[in-house]
Design goal:
This protein is α+β, with helices and mostly antiparallel strands. It has one domain. The protein contains two helices and five strands, in the order E-E-H-E-E-E-H. The chain has a three-stranded antiparallel β-sheet with strand order 3-4-5, covered by helices on one side. A two-stranded antiparallel sheet has the order 1-2. The longest helix has 18 residues. It starts with 6 loop residues before the first strand and ends with a helix. The mean pLDDT is 83.
């Protein structure tokens, strides 16, 4: 993950009411943001989390994608969610 403020400027598409134009994007996730938008998956906002919190990519349709620094972090997050949900029971 990159440090807060380590950004690059990307030219993003203007689609409907989403008026990005150029935007500062965290350097470490800029390639995926560029590829998603070029492929027609329009993004509205994003943050890599900078190694402090879980990052996200907000899609134009309102969904969010999580940005994790590695597989181990994903598995830990999933385990905590599953254990938390099962601990409360039906």
């Amino acid at each position: 993950m990159c440090e807060h403020g380590d950004t690059v400027i990307l030219e993003l598409p203007i689609v409907g009411d989403i008026r990005c134009g150029s935007a500062d994007i965290d350097r470490c996730i800029a390639p995926i943001i560029k590829a998603m938008n070029a492929g027609g998956i329009i993004t509205k906002a994003c943050c890599c989390g900078h190694g402090k919190v879980m990052g996200y990519i907000q899609l134009a349709d309102g969904r969010y994608l999580g940005v994790f620094p590695n597989r181990r972090t994903i598995m830990k997050h999933r385990h905590e969610k599953l254990m938390g949900d099962s601990a409360t029971g039906p």
